[in-house]
Amino acid sequence: MITLDGVRWQEVFKGADKTIITNNINEDGTIEEIEEKYWSDDEKLRREKLLPFFWKTIEEQGQLYGNKERGSVMRLTNPYFFSYPGYNELLVGFSDDSINSNEKTFNPNTNVLEYMNQQTGFKGQVAAFASWDVFDWIINKDRNDFIINSGAYPYEDSVLTQKQKWMNSFVSHMPYEGYGLGVRWDALTHEYAFDYLKYRKPRLLYIAYDETDEYAHQLKYDLYLKMIHRSDEYIGRIWKWLQSNDMYRNKTTLIITTDHGRGEAEKDGWGSHGQTVPGAQFVWTAILGPDTPQMGEVTYTDTIATNQIAATIAHLFGYDYKSNRETGEVIQLMVAKK
Ligand SMILES: [Zn+2]
What we know:
- This protein is α/β, with parallel strands linked by helices.
- It is built from 13 helices and 11 strands.
- It has helices spanning 9-14, 18-23, 31-38, 43-50, 52-61, 83-92, 112-117, 135-138, 162-173, 186-200, 211-217, 221-244, 309-316, and strands at 2-4, 63-65, 74-75, 126-130, 147-150, 204-209, 254-257, 282-283, 285-288, 296-297, 304-305.
- Helix 4 (43-50) crosses helix 5 and helix 11 packs antiparallel against helix 12.
């Protein structure tokens, strides 16, 4: 599973927004240069320019949910529309009213990563890498002994590759709060996670990228687009590697989603999210794998919700997910081949 923090369904299904490009603080080039990279008058070409892996590979082999304008709604069931409540809902499978801040408090709820880690044959086969350090609390590092690596914390393991050693020293010497983000660079999270995948070969891996949300809050639309595009490239590289490896090829499902949406283009609403921001409850999911029938963009279908993802993941492994409360149900259309 991979999450892209606070990426709007609008960019996923409609590509870059011309109004926002025009009104944007451009750090990465002129308006003409940004339009050259991400704009086309044709909506399908436009979204493909922004997310080529999504709109070629996933469209051709998997499913994409969340285009509200074509009868596919995916929403949060929590009423807060910001990160910790969103990731709680996603990972544990229900909304918990007591989780209503982004503070570093250990999550009392059982999540699907720890549930799977407790099943026979899964111990030590689960890992999570995240750019945002609060994931140590969201996934609960206090209670769990599988790998949870996040933020400015170096990767700890009994054996380290040369590259991991180098990255650890780099990560611990970087001025974490000083490079303008408040999260670890996604490039570092990606390299840590991808190395772990190649050398440790986990059965369930979670990667949580974050830079998209940071640039959106800063109203830097060009950098937000750039990170969406780069995340798509990371995901494409991971999928290509999975399909080149005998252990994973044709046996692996990739599921990509987000923790919340954001507001509309008007009055810079696109930059923020939260309870008072209309539209921030709408999210999206992309999935591809051997149990998922090819449907491409799923349109005119039942509304789905973020609280259903945990049960869907466990089901793909052949398990009936149980947490400490009732969870959302398996999304049947995603697993219809099983
Ligand atoms: Zn977020």
